[in-house]
């Protein structure tokens, strides 16, 4: 694709999302509302592009004459269009970055780009490796008291982003294209039928729950990939870089900000810590379950370490078809111990049976 056409997919996706939003507005609110939105949109474009005074006067007259109900419809329509356009733009940036990576390029702002720049500046590779062994980076999440956006809205917007991503990465059949179009239309219709703003203030614990949901979507999956990619890059430079210390650790003020928020009490802070612990243990359990599904290795075909055999032997799995699958039996032991750890953190289980420390789980 010529460079001058690099934004053509973005424009196409924005037109698609705008058309589907227009369909939802017309079907739900009627032709009068749809035509009003279109009239305002076209007058705005004409005024913006040509600084047309006649278009400005027409736009002002239309806006001044809106009823309260019409004003709400217009605000919602343009708010959703702006959010949909932002989704399309985000996906376009991702697509462009993938294209550059496929061509052997490095995207500015990435860790790979930074390492290349440091090495090009003459910093020895060994000094770079030592930096990561002593570095300490702590991004911190914070709650915004004025944040009234809803998780329901964010979920639908994420669904729309995933559908656009599928359109970009797959060569779809006509039937698959129709299914994708229909799914986009449903998601946008659901957005229109969902209240954009909260009607009541969040409790601190609600904010904690919302904050933890971002870990599932980003950090819990992204950070291991970041470390793995960094280790591979340093090893390619001839450095022994396995098991780089965790120099990037996420923090959170949500539920623990005792500096002025009167609703963050000691019981709230204890509950926050319990929720965080339970959340990460649940993530480990999901990952171990996935490993169990993958690691069907049979000792009649492969050899395993004595340590693994010993761990597998401590379990209580009695299914005969697992006798020669030590990885699955060992993972069953780990899952049971993680469940006991989670129960202990919640105060509903015995002290024995779980992991006393993170090092025990790592071992």
Please explain how this structure is put together:
By secondary structure, the chain is mainly alpha-helical. The chain has helices spanning 8-29, 31-50, 53-64, 68-102, 111-120, 125-134, 151-169, 174-192, 204-236, 266-294, 306-313, 326-346, 358-362, and strands at residues 140-141, 251-252. A two-stranded parallel ribbon has the order 1-2. α1 runs antiparallel to α4, α2 (31-50) runs antiparallel to α3 (53-64) and α9 (204-236) packs across α10 (266-294). The protein is globular and about 80 Å long.
In short:
The protein is mainly α.
Please describe the structure with a list of short key phrases separated by commas or semicolons:
single chain; 363 residues; mainly alpha; two-stranded parallel ribbon
Biggest pleated-sheet summary = 2 strands, parallel
Can you count the beta strands? 2
**How would the global form be characterised?**
globular
Distance between the termini: 50 Å
Task: Identify the strand order in the major beta sheet.
Answer: 1-2
Number of helices: 13
Quote the average pLDDT. 86
**What is the radius of gyration?**
27 Å
Tell me the fraction of residues in β-strands, as a range.
Answer: under 5%
Q: Structural class, judged by helices and strands? A: mainly alpha
What low-confidence regions span 5 or more consecutive residues with pLDDT below 50?
Answer: none
Helix content: 55-70%
Query: What pattern of helices and strands is seen along the backbone?
Result: HHHHHHEHHHEHHHH
């Amino acid at each position: 694709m010529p460079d001058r056409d690099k934004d053509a997919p973005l424009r196409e996706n924005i037109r698609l999302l705008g058309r589907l939003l227009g369909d939802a507005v017309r079907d739900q609110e009627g032709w009068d509302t749809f035509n009003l939105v279109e009239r305002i949109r076209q007058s705005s474009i004409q005024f913006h592009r040509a600084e047309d005074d006649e278009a400005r006067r027409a736009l002002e007259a239309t806006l001044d004459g809106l009823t309260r109900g019409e004003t709400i419809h217009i605000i919602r329509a343009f708010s959703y269009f702006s959010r949909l356009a932002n989704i399309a733009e985000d996906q376009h940036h991702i697509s462009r970055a993938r294209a550059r990576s496929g061509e052997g390029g490095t995207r500015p702002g990435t860790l790979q780009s930074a390492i290349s720049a440091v090495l090009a500046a003459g910093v020895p590779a060994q000094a770079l490796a030592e930096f990561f062994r002593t570095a300490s980076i702590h991004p911190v999440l914070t709650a915004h008291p004025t944040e009234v956006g809803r998780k329901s809205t964010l979920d639908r917007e994420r669904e729309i982003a995933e559908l656009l991503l599928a359109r970009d990465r797959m060569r779809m059949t006509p039937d698959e294209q129709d299914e994708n179009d229909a799914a986009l239309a449903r998601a946008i219709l659901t957005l229109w039928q969902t209240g954009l703003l909260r009607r009541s203030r969040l409790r601190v614990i609600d904010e904690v729950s919302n904050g933890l949901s971002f870990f599932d979507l980003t950090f819990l999956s992204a950070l291991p990939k970041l470390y793995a990619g960094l280790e591979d890059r340093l090893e390619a430079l001839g450095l022994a870089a396995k098991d780089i210390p965790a120099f990037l650790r996420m923090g959170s003020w949500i539920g623990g900000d005792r500096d002025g928020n009167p609703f963050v009490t000691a019981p709230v802070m204890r509950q926050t810590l319990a929720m965080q612990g339970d959340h990460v243990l649940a993530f480990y359990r999901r990952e171990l379950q996935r490993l169990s599904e993958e690691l069907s290795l049979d000792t009649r075909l492969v050899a395993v370490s004595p340590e693994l055999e010993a761990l597998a032997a401590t379990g209580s799995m009695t299914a005969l078809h697992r006798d020669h699958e030590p990885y699955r039996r060992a993972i069953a032991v780990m899952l049971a111990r993680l469940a006991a750890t989670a129960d202990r953190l919640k105060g509903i289980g015995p002290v024995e049976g779980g992991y006393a420390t993170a090092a025990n789980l790592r071992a």
